[in-house]
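Quiz preparation item.
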C-alpha cells in the first residue's frame, strides 16, 4: 500500500510540475507566477538537494525556449531562482510559517537582484521606484498564494498517507490476533 501512496505522490508531483510549466503560457498578469513559489516549496517535495535547485530553474529555462529569451537580465532571473531554492533548503522547517517567510525573503531578493540588473543593462526601473515596487507586489502576492496552496495540498496528501498506513497497521494487527 505504501508503494501505491508513493506512486500517487509521484503522479501528483508530475502533474504539479506540468501545471506550473503550462502556467507560463496562460495569459496571467505580469509577475503572477507559481515558479518562485515552487522554488521555495521544493524542500517539502524532495530531499534531493540537486533537484531542489535544478527543477524550478529548468522549468523556467524550458518555457523560455518557447517564449523567447530576454537578454542578459535573464541570467539574474535564473540566479535568483537558484538562490531562492538554496535559501529554502537552508532555512527549511516543516511548517507553513517558514515557507511563507522564505517566500517573502525570496521575493525581496529577487526584487533587488533582478531590478538592479535591469537598471545596469539600461532597460527598466530601479528597485526602489514605485513602478518596480508595484510590479513586484504581484510577485509577492502570487508567491505567497501559490506556496500556501502547495502546502495545503501537501498537508492533505500527508494526512491521507498517514491514515492509510494506520489502516494497514490496524488490519495487520487484526490478522495477527485472529491467527493466534
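Solution:
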Amino acid at each position: 500500500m505504501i508503494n501505491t501512496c508513493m506512486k500517487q505522490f509521484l503522479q501528483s508531483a508530475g502533474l504539479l510540475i506540468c501545471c506550473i510549466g503550462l502556467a507560463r503560457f496562460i495569459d496571467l498578469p505580469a509577475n503572477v507566477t507559481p515558479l518562485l513559489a515552487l522554488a521555495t516549496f521544493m524542500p517539502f517535495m524532495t530531499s534531493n538537494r540537486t533537484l531542489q535547485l535544478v527543477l524550478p530553474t529548468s522549468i523556467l529555462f524550458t518555457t523560455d525556449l518557447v517564449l523567447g529569451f530576454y537578454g542578459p537580465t535573464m541570467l539574474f532571473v535564473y540566479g535568483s531562482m537558484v538562490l531562492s531554492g538554496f535559501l529554502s533548503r537552508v532555512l527549511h522547517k516543516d511548517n507553513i510559517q517558514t515557507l511563507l517567510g522564505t517566500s517573502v525573503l525570496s521575493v525581496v531578493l529577487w526584487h533587488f537582484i533582478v531590478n538592479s540588473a535591469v537598471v545596469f543593462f539600461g532597460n527598466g526601473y530601479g528597485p526602489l521606484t514605485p513602478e518596480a515596487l508595484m510590479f513586484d507586489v504581484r510577485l509577492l502576492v502570487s508567491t505567497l498564494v501559490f506556496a500556501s496552496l502547495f502546502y495545503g495540498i501537501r498537508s492533505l496528501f500527508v494526512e491521507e498517507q498517514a491514515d492509510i498506513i494506520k489502516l494497514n497497521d490496524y488490519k495487520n494487527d487484526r490478522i495477527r490476533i485472529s491467527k493466534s
